[in-house]
Design goal:
This protein has 15 helices and five strands. It has 366 residues and is of the alpha/beta class. It has two domains: 109 residues, Response regulator (Rossmann fold); 180 residues, Hypothetical protein af1432 (Orthogonal Bundle). Strands 2-1-3-4-5 form a five-stranded parallel beta sheet, with helices on both faces. Helix 4 links the parallel strand 4 and strand 5. The longest helix is centred in the middle third of the chain and has 38 residues. The chain starts with 7 loop residues before the first strand and ends with a helix.
Amino acid sequence: MNEENKKRILIVDDEEVNIKLLAALCESLGYRTITARNGIEAVDIATREMPDLILMDVMMPEMNGFEATERLKSEESTRLIPIIIVTALDSRDDRLKGISIGADDFLTKPVDLEELSLRVKNHLRLKNYHDLLKNHNTILEKKVAERTSELQNTLQRLDRAHRKIRFGYMETVYRLTLASEYKDEETGTHIKRVSFYTRELATTLGMDREFVDSIFYASPMHDIGKVGIPDNIIMKPGKLDQEEWEIMKKHTTIGGKILSGSSSPYLKMAKEIALSHHERWDGGGYPEGLKEEEIPLPGRIMNIVDQYDALRSKRPYKPAMEHERVVEIITKGDGRTLPEHFDPNVLDAFIRSKERLREIYETHQD
């Protein structure tokens, strides 16, 4: 790869030996490196140089890594640069503080090369999607203007140009969604099923065509926030402990942040779904504990189909369930899943659509 095309990583540490080690590891993975010795220097260099990713130590003079991270995440120009905290600190309070100020991930010293490689690769991929979404409206307007200028006298050809732009837009959305699968056990067929399930329930509920189309394209992005959850939690085969579960629940708010700020109706609805698809009708869900109609309708629809597909699907920690048993659990309860968790109108639509949901699941298998 041409040297100019290599991604740049800013390494921030006050220990020369640590800088040399991290630089050697990053360069062995094909990245360019720049360095800073404290938080003040890191903020200055990051603002001027705009690196693709920052590896940030915590314990440094003048300004520590937490302060530097908070400063960078508060500035519009630098807030989307992924920051991985590299530290020997491993207490729960330190991690929660890092998450609260916007740190994207953690690496524990001594750094493992394979773990470094995977985390850096994941966050650089996510940044590419951030950048694409940020610039998407400008790109779309440019394409529309170019096509309109070229084909202004031919209605049929103009229509084809719009369809092509729409296809490119939806491909972008689909690729964004794939980022959430990269660290999860779910598959591309799960994404397809979710689209068809939500469209089916929205249609049964009598929603208009705009709503039905929007939820079809928006619902696959419900778990996009999982890209911000550490691998050891997202890929754990067993039950999460309380601390891990609190971190896992943050995928809703992370997803909301990823999808915020767009004028696209699909991404606006996707943000609603990401934030609310784990809220419950009885108020016992998360992240806000919303209840009844405080929960946006797309989130209420997504909640029940997500439960249906999760129960039907095989996971490392559970077998797949038959359709009839899953319908029984959702409509009658099993101790963990209860009918009171769901909007009664959405639950009624689920019951009326249950055979169609069975067909969707059986048609779209891995």
